[in-house]
Amino acid sequence: MSTHLYCIVPSDSPPAIPRGLVGIDDERVRPMPIDDVVAWVSDVERRLAVSVAGIRAHDAVVEAALETGVTPVPARYGQRFDDDDACRGALESRAASIGALLDRVQGYVEMTLIITPSTAKMLRDLKPLVPKVDDDATPGAGREYLETLRAREAATGVIRQAIDELAQRLTEAARRHVHRSAVHEQFTRLPLRTLSHLIPRDAVDQYKETLRPVPTTREFRFLVIGPRAPYSFCALNAGDGGAHGMKLAD
After folding, report:
1. Other CB atoms closer than 10 Å to residue 34's CB: what's the count?
2. 249, 79 in Cβ contact below 8 A?
3. Which SS3 state, helix, strand or coil, does residue 104 take?
4. Beta-bridge partners for 43
5. H or E element: which one contains 171?
6. Rounded to whole angstroms, how far apart are CA atoms 220 and 118?
7. Residue 136 and residue 90 share a domain
8. Which residue intervals of 94-244 are DSSP H helices?
9. Fewer CB near the terminus (10 Å): N or C of the chain?
10. Would the pTM of this model clear 0.85, i.e. be above it?
């Protein structure tokens, strides 16, 4: 077996792990005190596969820590170490950075806004336009194909502009509550944008209320998710991206 890291909580008033809390593969979650912090860990198989069930179990443990009243620093899924000593050593080697990060997020939670076109609009604007004739030898087939690509590019640009406008309206509405923000964009077959906001824990209701009047259309919508642990704001290194929690292990 090896050691899986879920999150870090303060040691000055460490929350008790809820009775019966289990993590990946239904293994018991246990505390690991390290200097000024406490890690929540459990045993896992040495070959930890990436699975929806595993990610959900990991997140459930992190959310259980958040529900105790502190703000945990969530570890990225899959932070596995050979044993407790290896996990402790990795945390001790970055103790100053981890402690500072834990202090910065106390009292805050992450709220997430997902902006996406409606299904009907995506089907209409991004529907592949297949040329009637796909034989290269047929006159006009190449020109028709290029026109198809140009039409798709134009549709994509229109969607991106509309998402930009809605994102700006949401950003302005929520500005007074936002301590830090991050933007994540996926623009492949499903165009969407995610806005992550770090806000005071006691401002969640006000934050949601400020977003209610933001105008949307039948073709574009946004979803509000949270509060949750601050996965998007826990990078220890500039190159980590910081979208999925603290990364220590490779």
Report:
1. 18
2. yes
3. helix
4. 3
5. helix 141-174
6. 5
7. no
8. 95-105, 119-126, 141-174, 204-211
9. C
10. no
pLDDT digits (tens, 9 = 90+) for 143-201: 555 555 455 544 556 677 888 888 899 999 999 999 999 987 665 555 678 899 999 99
Question: Which tokens go with 198?
Answer: 């770090």
In this structure, the answer to whether residues 175 and 222 fall within a common structural domain is yes
Helix 141-174 to helix 119-126 angle (10° resolution) is 150
Helix (H, G, I), strand (E, B) or coil at 127: coil
Structure letter (DSSP) for residue 24: G
Amino acid at 68: T
The amino acid at 223: L
Query: Is residue 126 left, alpha or beta, with left meaning phi > 0 and alpha meaning psi from -120 to 50?
Result: alpha
Q: What is the C-alpha to C-alpha distance for residues 239 and 57, in angstroms, rounded to an integer?
A: 26
Full domain range(s) for residue 141? 109-233
Model pLDDT for residues 207-244, shown as the tens digit of each residue:
999 999 998 777 778 889 999 999 999 888 765 655 68
Chain position carrying tokens 């994509």? 156
Domains: count for the chain:
2
Residue type for 160, please?
R
Distance CA 37, CA 40 (A): 10
- 184 - beta bridge partners? 194
Query: CA 104: distance to chain centroid?
Result: 18
Residue 92 contacts residue 34 (beta carbons within 8 Å):
yes
Spatial separation of the C-alpha atoms in residues 31 and 189, rounded to whole Å: 42
| Burial class, 212, CB count within 10 angstroms (exposed 0-12 / middle 13-18 / buried 19+) | exposed
For tokens 């604007």, what's the residue?
Answer: 125
Q: Which two tokens stand for residue 183?
A: 């933007």
In a domain, 241, yes or no: no
